[in-house]
Amino acid sequence: MASQPGPLTKVGTIVVPLLAVVVLVFTWGRDLPGPVVVLVALVLAGAVLSAVHHAEVVAHRVGEPFGSLVLAVAVTVIEVALIVTLMADGGAKTSSLARDTVFAAVMITANGIVGLALFVGAWRGGVAPFSTEGTVAAIATMATLATLSLVLPTFTTGKPGPEFTGAQLAFAAIVSLAVYGLFVAMQTVRHREYFLPVTRDGEVLDEDDHAHPPTNKETVISLVMLLVALVAVVGDTKTISPVIESGVEAAGLPQAFVGVVIALMVLLPETLAAHRSALRDRTQVSLNLAHGSAIASIGLTIPAIAVASIWMEGPLVLGLGPTHMVMLALTVVVSILTVVTGRATLLQGGLHLVLFASFVFLAISP
Questions:
Q1: Structure confidence at residue 168 (pLDDT)
Q2: Most confident of 72-81, 144-153, 279-288
Q3: Its membrane topology, per UniProt (predicted)?
Q4: Angle, vertex CA 26, rays to CA 256 and CA 7, nearest 5
Q5: Residue 5 within a domain
Q6: Considering the domain boundaries, does residue 6 fall inside one?
Q7: In DSSP terms, which residues pair with 129 in a beta bridge?
Q8: Domain holding 136: CATH number?
Q9: pLDDT tens digits along 269-297
Q10: Cβ–Cβ under 8 Å, residues 286 and 115
Q11: What is the Cα–Cα distance from 300 to 22, expressed in whole angstroms?
Q12: Is 312 contained in some domain?
């Protein structure tokens, strides 16, 4: 995998995240005037680009599928911290924020990022090749976690409303961690070859390109700066979240749309990284990022929310409504039909992008 910084210079990929953190320190918990909001947005965009660069450097050093796992887990861990922080500060009005953000993350990754990667890959070469075994396993894991954590609460009767009882939530948390751990073990140890990039001739690539990997020092620096950049991305997103909330309210949009906007901003690094992998004919890497992020988002968020609910007051709404359940079911069906042949055309990429656009539209106009 190439480790070129793209729009930012190598110095910029270090300076910009540090600047974003400094801006975060001085703006945290304050009411921001318009010009400062613009400044935060600019350093946020720079931090996103820096995160992509450093993630690619680390990925080049450790190889696939570990490289895509690094970015997916790092983003998800900090995303979980953001959700818990917003829920702790927001009270009853944020009772469904975890559900809204996690479901938005699943739709963005499984439809938006996957659709973009398949469309770009097919546009460049006619078809976008990938591993059927690994991708089907990832979709099955994602569907299992989403159903157990986001669909079942709507139908359980132990507690009024789309909520789990304490025991049910604890069970869901344990199962989520177990399933996530099982998937990671399969992806990185037992069946690592299922998640490596493949060529259009079916050849498995055990390395991304012939360039020399970065040194240990460069890798450590990039790993540290990746974490700094991701902290800046999520922290600055939280800083401007009141502006997002007021904008959503002023536009007359549903409160759930806040979760969609937050998920879109937090997942920008993965979206750009997946797009760049697709441009290099590494569709499998893009799918690893997308599905891995969806799995991590559920598998790590539910346990974290379960622990946080011990001290957080108010209800915890996890169950999806009918519209979202239909969107989830359709996404799973289309995803399976997309990957059964191991090759996708523009049609499959377009279908996923249409599903993503439908999700966004229905979030605006439910």
A1: 93
A2: 144-153
A3: Multi-pass membrane protein
A4: 75
A5: no
A6: no
A7: 343
A8: 1.20.1420.30
A9: 788 888 888 888 889 889 988 998 899 88
A10: no
A11: 28
A12: yes
Task: Tell me the sheet residues that pair with 198.
Answer: 204
CB within 8 Å of 101: residues ≥ 6 apart = 79, 83, 259, 262, 263, 301
For residue 35, give its domain range: 12-364
Task: List the Cα angle 327/328/332 in 5-degree steps.
Answer: 115
pLDDT of residue 207: 52
Task: State the sign of the Cα–Cα–Cα–Cα dihedral 33, 36, 41, 47.
Answer: negative
Query: What is the number of structural domains in the chain?
Result: 1
Q: What is the DSSP letter of 210?
A: S
Q: Angle at the Cα of 38 (from 70 to 27), degrees rounded to 5?
A: 70
Mean pLDDT of 66-79: 71
340 has pLDDT over 70:
yes
In a domain, 2, yes or no: no
**Number of C-beta neighbours around residue 210 at 10 A:** 5
pTM of the model: 0.82
Q: Residue 86 class from Cβ within 10 Å (0-12 exposed, 13-18 middle, 19+ buried)?
A: buried
Classify residue 196 as left (phi > 0), alpha (psi -120 to 50) or beta.
Answer: beta
